[in-house]
Design a protein that fits this description.
CATH topology of the largest domain: Rossmann fold
Shape: elongated
Strand order of the largest sheet: 3-2-1-4
Number of domains: 2
Oligomer: single chain
Largest sheet: 4 strands, parallel
Order of helices and strands: HEHEHEHEHHHHHH
CATH superfamily of the largest domain: Vaccinia Virus protein VP39
Strand content: 5-15%
Low-confidence stretches: 1-8, 210-222
Distance between the termini: 21 Å
Helix content: 40-55%
Length: 222
């Protein structure tokens, strides 16, 4: 079981906060949708900019992030509705909240430091962990471990090349298949090693896949 870190111990710097606040120009009584709540950095910025008087509808599919975000949003009691759903469920969430219009919306797409920094979540290749990569481990969707050990070449190539924007998708897919014929691929470290060996042995290529959080397709599975 993953241990939830204390809220105050979670470092969080929201992306382009000043620019987002300038674009939204939050106002008292305004309604704003945060479709990817994360650790509530943008939502808190909106609330503070409105003098604590804006109304927020905040969505996230990561239950751990939601729990931490709710604690942070206690700074402004009653001003934020939090909903456990992916941002694609925004229409249903708006209807449930009784909102027929909004004054602005923000989507910070991708993964958060909370997900990358915890090896148990299976996103980061910096620390070895179980190969998962699901935003919501309780969703019932297949984990990356299932995919890399089950899917045929064409599907693996499509996932890595198209979803991960990786031009060497075919070569990496073949390397994965060869490796899994020897033993099941179960950890982020093992997958990272397979990808590393699939790249041409040039300094530029090696640097490209050893940057801080591993290959660019690391979170593109699900």
């Amino acid at each position: 079981m993953t241990t939830m870190p204390a809220t105050q111990d979670v470092p969080h710097i929201p992306v382009m906060l000043d620019e987002i606040i300038a674009a939204l120009a939050p106002k008292a009584g305004g309604r704003y949708l945060d479709g990817t709540l994360g650790l509530a950095g943008h939502s808190l910025g909106i609330l503070r900019a409105s003098g604590g008087k804006a109304n927020l509808l905040c969505l996230d599919r990561d239950e751990q992030a939601l729990a931490l975000a709710r604690k942070r949003l206690e700074e402004f009691p009653g001003q934020a509705i939090t909903v456990y759903t992916p941002f694609s469920g925004f229409k249903e969430a708006l209807a449930e909240a009784g909102w027929d219009s909004i004054d602005g919306a923000v989507l910070d797409l991708g993964v958060s430091s909370l997900q990358l920094d915890e090896a148990e979540r299976g996103f980061s290749f910096n620390a070895d962990g179980p190969l998962d990569m699901r935003m919501d481990p309780t969703s019932g969707m297949d984990s990356a471990r299932v995919l890399v050990n089950r899917e045929h070449y064409e599907e693996l190539r499509r996932i890595i090349r198209d979803l991960g924007d990786e031009p060497l998708g075919g070569k990496i897919a073949r390397a994965i298949i060869r490796a899994r014929e020897q033993e099941e691929i179960t950890t982020t470290k093992k997958l990272a090693e397979i990808v590393y060996r699939a790249y041409p042995p040039t300094a530029a290529a090696r640097r490209a896949i050893t940057r801080p959080h591993g290959p660019s397709w690391r979170c593109a599975w699900l």
